[in-house]
């Protein structure tokens, strides 16, 4: 946490500093703050009663429930997967390790719509696996399992991406010290590894959750948009908007924005904790 | 507990890190593994601990084969170069860790653990830091806590990987002395890795000199210093002045420099004469048996004696020569940088093409 120095370096012009700050603030205002305010003001446009009516609409409630359900499924899956993957690539050397680290980023690189289409191609009723699954009376696409699957795909890098650099930086020495002292694998993870990565892990979970709640592209391809059944909150916003129910659309949108703001709050707190954990406490008064 | 290594081979991919290492480490001794970086000493230590496995070979503790025993069951104490303290635990929790993770049946009660941790903290003289976190400690304190943590398990074997490598010179010396005292008191078998010759010779009962994955020589500090068996050991244990020349009829020559060798030697051809800094005298004219003209390049006054760095005049040496003279002699002679002087060997070690081991020559009693 560096403090901005009040004095300028010799030769630096004050107007450069102020015009940079000014343009950055203007852009932030135009691109981020005003739209956010608009979302909430539109939601409240018809008054609080209408907002409440829109919120308690059956379809909206069901969209909220499905969205929370998908997030509740996705987050634990990616939590375990992310920890497992990060552990694997930072603690072991094996052929293809570098490739695996690159592969983790595929969901970031690929457009979510493409991901949705891929899953449709693979698991849809005309797809390669979908036909066989249909014979077993298992429907994945256009149902909640499909939505969970694509959400898991889209959000799977977050936890691993947070953990890998941290675990690489921390190295395996503490774990080696633990195992020499007789700790079992599970004791090592619980007493040594987990406490060291907990804040990064929480950070990854917060990001995963935010994305799982907000994912639109991939979900819209595999959901089929069945109101009250496969409609998540972001899809619901679009449906309402297309129905010319602007106030309703913005009500749901404000809900999503609210979740986003909450996420930011938690994220800042976690970042602050991480910072504190990493900063060595400057209290070395005792010499040897 | 004695340690015995038999035919250890270790590969990292194509690279052979250890080449057929066999070694006996006697019970209760402090043994130093000494070598330059990349010589395989740390790998060997990690193999003894079980943190690394060897492709071939056996490891025996007290005659018992532990080659396939898991690291957690070998019950050795291990001290890491960068301490590897658990950063989220206090000093007391760090030391208690080994006791806390014991299976329920063997684990001492909470009060007993607290008592043992207290004793260990007293032993490392850091009881006042029990509730601190590692980030709040200095390097020397961290290393002592790491040692206390390793000793909590009452290991019979203590392995230390460059234990003083990351500390500054003053703390290093203190800790070294302290470790030696601790070892003499508790009498476990200790093996420590170092690249510092002075540290190895000062601290160890026995030194294992390693280079490029092989053991070069094993011996007590005096024996190693007095009778190095190879050029490598000679080069590695302190500075050595080398005259590289042609040997013919008892005389070694290179450029303007020559040395008349004592005794009867039948060898001829290329040879090297190794001279330790204390085996050479300096004077302002050549001696009857040697003409080694040198120019004073630098003078270092700090220490028990004055160390002069010298460049050859009219001949060549790969590294500058170093000779130590007493402060008394320095004050009498008062040499300046740039002055010319002549080296006179008292004792020397001759390596020739025919023999791997050096021959020790002496001019003093001739």
Automatic annotation (TrEMBL), chain A:
The keyword Transport applies. The chain crosses the membrane at residues 20-44, 64-88, 100-122, 142-160, 200-226, 246-266. Residues 64-271 form the ABC transmembrane type-1 domain. Pfam families: BPD_transp_1. It comes from the Bacteria. The complex is composed of two ATP-binding proteins (CysA), two transmembrane proteins (CysT and CysW) and a solute-binding protein (CysP). This is Sulfate ABC transporter permease subunit CysW. It comes from Pseudomonas neustonica. The gene is cysW.
From TrEMBL, chain B:
It comes from the Bacteria. SUPFAM superfamilies: MOP-like, P-loop containing nucleoside triphosphate hydrolases. NCBIfam families: 3a0106s01 (TIGR00968). InterPro entries: AAA+_ATPase, ABC_SmlMolc_Importer, ABC_transporter-like_ATP-bd, ABC_transporter-like_CS, Mo/tungstate-bd_C_term_dom, P-loop_NTPase, Sulph_transpt1, TOBE-like. Its EC number is 3.6.3.25. It comes from Pseudomonas neustonica. Residues 3-237 form the ABC transporter domain. It holds the Pfam family TOBE_3. GO terms for molecular function: ATP binding; hydrolase activity. Keywords: ATP-binding, Cell membrane, Hydrolase, Membrane, Nucleotide-binding, Sulfate transport, Translocase, Transport. This is Sulfate ABC transporter ATP-binding protein. Coiled coil: none annotated. The gene is cysA.
